[in-house]
Amino acid sequence: MAEFSLDAPTLTRLGEALGAAVVSASRLAGGACQDNFLLEVEGGARWVLRSDARTSLPGSIDRAREFAVMKAAVRAGVKTPEPRALLGELLAPRTAAYLVPFVAGEAIGRKIVKGPELAAARAGLAGELAAELARIHSVTPATAPGLFGDTPPDAANAASAASAAHARIAGMRGPMAGLRRERPALAWLVRWLEEHAPSDDPVSVLTHGDFRTGNFLVEPSGLSAVLDWEFAHFGSPYEDLAWLSVRDWRFGQLALPIGGFSARRPFYDAYEAASGRALDPAKLHYWEVLGNVAWALGAACQTERYTHGGEEDLELLAIGRRAAEMEWEALRLVEKGAL
After folding, report:
1. Could you tell me if 241 and 287 are in contact, meaning their C-beta atoms sit under 8 angstroms apart?
2. pTM of the full predicted structure?
3. Minimal CA–CA distance to 66: which of 230, 226, 211?
């Protein structure tokens, strides 16, 4: 992505928040939903500025709420950078931004799953991520009642839904209705999800909402940070556990369903040990179908951010082709049955 320079007043405001002058600023690659910039400050420290983009995907929380969620995650012991300096309307009206310390590590999925320099890290990654999820899921609506403010994301859906799955399905209805192109396979899959949703799976824990390869940093020594909390909400722990196995997040390593680096069983065993929860294979299968359906819808919406939302990043247009791939994977899983 091209170099990007923030204007002088913005750099001054950032310098005041950091207590040191910003000497350079550049847009970071990746981050198809929000705007991220690397800041170099006097003395050699590096920070990341994360700001609301002009448009966002359905279900995305704003940076003010993401700031609060990351603070809660840090308190729970999650390996995520602690945000600093929530700044309102820094880059545009009705937006927010915040700063986090720069953390070293690889975030590009294909490098994480294939890079020879990360082979040792991959061997222990399933266990490390399972432990992080257990910490994330230790935050609950009871322990953090005001985490999402007065109007949590999908609050109406969660309040009226019979289960966390029903709440997620209800949240898909608006985006599906807003698509400018009909998707019959997606409509059939959502109906299947409604008919097979587990009723004994309540909204019970903080979920990251996008816990997958590409949203955490990996060094040769192992996991260095969990990133990108913009889809966080209260839901089911199965959502995060299954999202990591969505086909697209394997980056070509299809035989390793957990993120392209692990078989399922070691990851699930590590989570059970870290969290104290016994996992239900039928629910894991259901939520993996739901994950592929959700990303099919998300990919279609990403393209429409480019074609009709005013965004200019060509990556959004390219993401749209994945919608059909995820529909196919969800249909395959439905036909296959239990994992």
Report:
1. yes
2. 0.89
3. 230
